[in-house]
Amino acid sequence: NAGVTQTPKFRVLKTGQSMTLLCAQDMNHEYMYWYRQDPGMGLRLIHYSVGEGTTAKGEVPDGYNVSRLKKQNFLLGLESAAPSQTSVYFCASSSTVETGNTIYFGEGSWLTVV
Amino acid sequence: AQTVTQSQPEMSVQEAETVTLSCTYDTSESDYYLFWYKQPPSRQMILVIRQEAYKQQNATENRFSVNFQKAAKSFSLKISDSQLGDAAMYFCAYRSVQGAQKLVFGQGTRLTINP
After folding, report:
1. pLDDT in tens, B15-24
2. I need a labelling partner for B89 at 20 to 30 A (CA). Which of A62, A88, B79, B105 fits?
């Protein structure tokens, strides 16, 4: 089982460049999330989606955009990268019907903005 | 909004000893889930243990157990017979059962195991 797959795993960007992180899940989950992890701050929610075609802002949405055109994919975009967006990004997904309320995480994407 | 606080940035324990990691949270909800996640250097997020708020019995998974005090909004993790492989960052997390069911994380505790 692939679970939650993030692409790319590593990327170095120059300030002002744009890029898209792709998250794909094969578990037919309704909910999908994008988090960023910075030293000493745990994981913070950037954007989330409760279903295909829907997105919403999380705790730290500025500088990011998202889209969920297909249920299995959740894209995170950086239109004009800034050094403050250097972080590790995690995608996660969960089901509304699965017992145990488990959230499944991808392996993370390391992004460096220079 | 819910918040989760881990007041111990770092902890250390001797191998085979017991260690307890602290977590407190703030919420006005009566039903929710609490989790402990382990994050080794690979950064993979590994679920350690889960607690449903409506259950009074503390969750246990092998050497890992929790002390869930709902009224005090406290959720500590006890690791018994600590092993070198337990060394990692540990995150406490809260998840609502309503709405988008977002996961809210604490700042993390770095656990070191001394041989």
Report:
1. 999 999 999 9
2. A62
